Amino acid sequence: MKSKMSLVAGVVLGTALVCIIAFLRYTLYLTSRNKRESRVRLEKFLEDYKAIRPTRYTYADIKKITDDFNEKLGEGSYGTVYKGRLSSEIYVAVKVLRDSKGKGEEYINEIGTIGRIHHVNVVLLLGFCADGFRRALIYEYLPNDSLERFILPVSSSTGSVSVISWNKLQHIALGTARGIEYLHQGCDQQILHFDIKPQNILLDHNLNPKICDFGLAKLCSKEKSAITMTAARGTIGYIAPEVLSRNFCKVSHKSDIYSFGMLLLEMVGGRINMDAKTNNHCKVNSLEWIYRHLEKGEESKIRIEEEGDATIVRKIAIVGLWCIQWHPVDRPSIKEVTQMLEGDGSHLNLSPNPFMATDKPKLNASPHGEDLDVILEIK
């Protein structure tokens, strides 16, 4: 009896081991196949891409360009950016990506999207590296870093003054809007960025803004204005409500408008003079504060330094508040945003309060004459 039970146990154990080994071999096969497919897909894309301009470099070239990664400019979840130069006069920023997830969609996305764009307010892609699984992107070098460094909150207790004028901030806001307008309306296909934020607005030596980081961008037809997505994308604090919840509203170019509105309000919110004892205001509280003061017409606590600054502040704040309306159909188009920023702002009306509790989503007619039809993104 024991012999028979031992035999059965041996058969069961042997069968289990065979199944485990088969499963592991199949998993290894799938992993290896996915890596091969990813590499073949990338190589095919790059082969087709040769005629579109940016130069392809080897990893050895990248090491030489960056002087063996000598000077780091920044680091993020995507990888690390180093300063380099192509010649004695041409400096560049080299983004070295960490191991890409999936099939390298973000890398292909960035090259395929930004590589064919040439606009004064969009960063220029000069080259790329796809040497095995080592990947990098080479951009024009912009010496003034990003907008983020110029809109940090200032404290009245320190007596510090802003390092950039309101007139220049208005110039940056308008230039960024023109860049987004080009992406939405000036390209062969509409480009939705999905990650508009201060860190992705780079500034050249004259503080001219240039939109960067197109890893999350999507292409869609210009004839339609909404897009289907399988997952939320972007940066918390700048993501439109409809991107966070697919049950809310249709994702469209209006999602970029929302992010841009948060950027505009952060420009204003970063200049609020807060007493050191109350400097624990969160971002949302400061935005609500901006709306309440505009609504009541009370004296602003925004740091004002020159004549005309108050007018600029009011205009940027009102445009930002229109952009972050809860329902996409209530937000202006980027063309309307640009026109508002170009004007003197004297005729701008305050938007409805975007911080009040909202009712059910509005999915129908838009006051701006748009009907957001759902479409599939262009691959």
Automatic annotation (TrEMBL):
Family: Belongs to the protein kinase superfamily.
Location in the cell: Membrane
PANTHER family, per database record: RUST RESISTANCE KINASE LR10-RELATED
Source lineage: Eukaryota, Viridiplantae, Streptophyta, Embryophyta, Tracheophyta
Bilayer topology annotation: Single-pass type I membrane protein
Transmembrane segments: 7-28
Name of the protein in question: Protein kinase domain-containing protein
UniProt-annotated binding residues for ATP: 95
GO-annotated molecular function: ATP binding; protein serine/threonine kinase activity
InterPro entries for this protein: Kinase-like_dom_sf, LRK10/LRL21-25-like, Prot_kinase_dom, Protein_kinase_ATP_BS, Ser/Thr_kinase_AS
Organism: Solanum lycopersicum (Tomato)
Pfam families: Pkinase
Domain of life where this protein originates: Eukaryota
One Gene Ontology CC term in the entry: membrane
Keywords: ATP-binding, Glycoprotein, Kinase, Membrane, Nucleotide-binding, Serine/threonine-protein kinase, Signal, Transferase, Transmembrane, Transmembrane helix
SMART domains: S_TKc
Record domain Protein kinase: where: 67-356
